[in-house]
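Students often ask why we bother encoding 3D structure as a string. The short answer is that it lets us treat folding as translation between two languages. Here is a chain of 174 residues written in the first language.
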Amino acid sequence: MTTFGTMRALDPQRGAVRVEELYDTDIHDLWDACTTPVRLARWLAHVSGDLRVGGTIEMTFTSTWTGPARVERCDAPHHLLLITEPGTDEEAQLEAWLTEEGSQTRLVVEDRGLPLDKLHFHGAGWHAHLEDLTRSLQRNDSAHPDGWSATQASPNWRSRWVELTPQYEAMPVA
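And here it is in the second language, the structure alphabet:
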């Protein structure tokens, strides 16, 4: 499996990162890994709050990003749309699509409304997150045995992010 990522400008200040991966699991298992708090904590974030359309959740990512999001759309097991930091200058859209491909499932994640000059950091971060999901699914456990917090990134995530950032910095922004 090879994670694939792209970056594009939305306007002169904001852009989007899109990453995708094909996983060796069925769509229902992958949906569960992407929407159930206990499984999200294995690879991406601690999530709590009102987990329904219109509800607000709090997230602490393995990268240390912490903030609120509003659940805008949830069409199980195919589509999820969150608005992160709603109502602020940092508001962005985080969207995921799941598609069955035989016995596998493709996950596409797009994070829109990010600062254009920081896209490479976000691209590398999402790439590392999707690799963490692969490890979590393979182990049926946490990809981050050393944990993380709002002030301390997961050591595994951070080292991979540092490794990937120059590759994303060298990529064109379409």
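Translate back mentally: The first strand starts at residue 4 and ends at 9. Keep this in mind for the problem set.
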